[in-house]
Amino acid sequence: MVEKIKRSTSIWITLNLVFFFAMLGINYLGSTGFFNGMGQKDVSDKYTTLLTPAGFAFSIWGVIYTLILISLIYFFVKRKEIMISQLINEISPLFILSCILNMGWIIAFSYEKVGLSTLFILGMVVVILLIVEKIYKSREEIPYTLTGIAFTLYGAWVFIASILNVAIFLVQQNWGGFGIPDSVWAMIMIIVAIVLTLSYLLLYKNAVFPISLAWAFWGIYNSYSSGSIKSSMDEVIQTMLLIGIGIFIVAIIITFIKNKFAIFPKSNA
């Protein structure tokens, strides 16, 4: 039985690496405009929203993908440990699915199929958070810090990216917003992002989750402060973004302390 699990683990690790590097390849091609002659930034610039972060904010993708690669290497090194082997077998189908959805998202977005890309990225949110949940449930059996940080940052960043994707889709469709000004909708979405993030934090007590949101809010704030985005309620939106960042930082600190300086709480917490 143990040997069967180990053989299965080796296969999953190989597949994980294949799909991960395929995903990186599609991301690279997408960024160069290989698909449809337009990169993700080109499409994003074409359909400007009031929630688009400054360009530097997207550098977090490099951090996320690096941490995931290190996690995959860690899994490879520790694959013979039975508890880690079991976790690999549990999350690998989800991880491969997340890679497929990621590639679909990049290609659909590049071809300006923003509605389809929104479905892909919403699927990514669900799948990646399911991976985080499985790591969360295994926190007493394995060292989870590296994988916990990697996939939590990934899931949280894709979550905020999905909100931006929805906003871009609505701009593309010339949605009238029921007569409500764009700036008001931007504020509503900021509030929704804060509420959903805090709800997730209360449910799972994952101290890392708000980090990606705080980074995204800082990126959006910089778009306003630099003049890249202009609206009739600039100052109000910027204030809300700074308040949101403050809320996230306080929530991170409090959760981290309550978790006894760990990402996740103990099982009996």
Automatic annotation (TrEMBL):
The chain crosses the membrane at residues 12-30, 50-75, 87-108, 114-132, 144-171, 183-202, 207-224, 236-257. Keywords: Membrane, Transmembrane, Transmembrane helix. This is Tryptophan-rich sensory protein. It comes from the Bacteria. InterPro entries: TspO/MBR-related_sf. Gene3D superfamilies: TspO/MBR protein (1.20.1260.100). It comes from Phocicoccus pinnipedialis.
